[in-house]
Amino acid sequence: MSNSLPDRRAWLDAAGLLQIFAGACLACFLCLGIVVLSAAAAGGAPPVPGGPWIMVGVYGPIALGCIVVGVGCLRTRRWARALSLIASWGLVLLGFVEAAAMLAVSRSMPSLMAAMPGQGASAMLSPAEFIVIAVVALLFFGVPGIVGVLFFGSASVKKTVERCQPEPSWTDACPLDVLATSLAFGSCAIVMVPLAPIMPLAAFGRLFVGPAAICGYAIAAILLASLAWGLYRRTRWAGPLLIATMIVGIANSVLTMRSDALDRYYVAMGYPAPMAAASSALLREPAMVVLILVMSAATMTWMLHILRRLPWRAA
């Protein structure tokens, strides 16, 4: 029956070209953003918190990844199909989480706008505008992600790449769900590297700046990178390390949310005091608290699923 599945190389070529185009557009956006921020700073405009470093640290790896995976699709590689499927699921998740967050913000905006000074309130988006952003997020991220999941997850595409590359690839070394989790932790570790020298760190109810923040980011990056490698290799120590990371993450979130560290964090990033207070207050609004709890429960459920996929004793 598998021999009757259609060949999807032409469609994979089209998908690869789209991914390369998306990566090139993102790279152009990155360069344009850096130029605009630099010109604005030279003209005396208030600096954007984080500045170009945030753009480089976040969008740079994504742009490069799109181009590399696109080339892999053009070459009909197994690893390109696996990474494209993981990225498609990521887009679906991003679209729905972004839409849910915007809807939660729209419910919280009236009370925040009432508490803001006149000029600060006028500069904030209205609830209706946040609803529009939620719809755009679903269309821009969710719909392409669903299409990608259906395409790259299809049996015909899987069979096509297996015909063109009979030998196993590095993405076949562990289950796809474990690989996706490993890549998520690894991506977080990579993003922390360029952000460490310029970003403050709010952790365990305290605010760290300067060398202390750099050390904190370095420790977190090493921990996440080690966890990513352990999950990919499915080592026996990956399970205990994942449990420890979950416990530390929960403790950090509870202590930070119960303190004023977030207010001081936004001020340290360069936000005006009223905007910093509004940003931290937004996270404590009932709608946002419910969203955070739902996302936390979903994350914990997924991590428990991953724990069941890991070895816990010697073979």
Query: Domains counted in the coordinates: how many?
Result: 2
Show unreliable segments: none
Please give the largest β-sheet.
2 strands, antiparallel
**Quick one: overall form?**
globular
User: What would you report as the Rg, rounded to the nearest angstrom?
Assistant: 22 Å
Q: How many angstroms does the end-to-end distance come to?
A: 36 Å
SS element count, helices: 12
Beta-strand share of residues? under 5%
User: Quick one: how many beta strands?
Assistant: 2
Helix content: over 70%
Oligomer: single chain
Q: From the helix content, strand content and strand pairing, which structural class follows?
A: mainly alpha
Q: Walk across the major sheet and give the strand order.
A: 1-2
What would you note in describing this structure?
By secondary structure, this protein is mainly alpha-helical. The protein has 2 domains: 1-94 and 132-167; 174-315, no CATH class. It has helices at residues 9-42, 51-74, 78-115, 118-123, 127-152, 155-164, 176-195, 211-233, 238-257, 261-268, 273-282, 286-307, and strands spanning 201-203, 206-208. A two-stranded antiparallel ribbon has the order 1-2. The two termini are 36 Å apart.
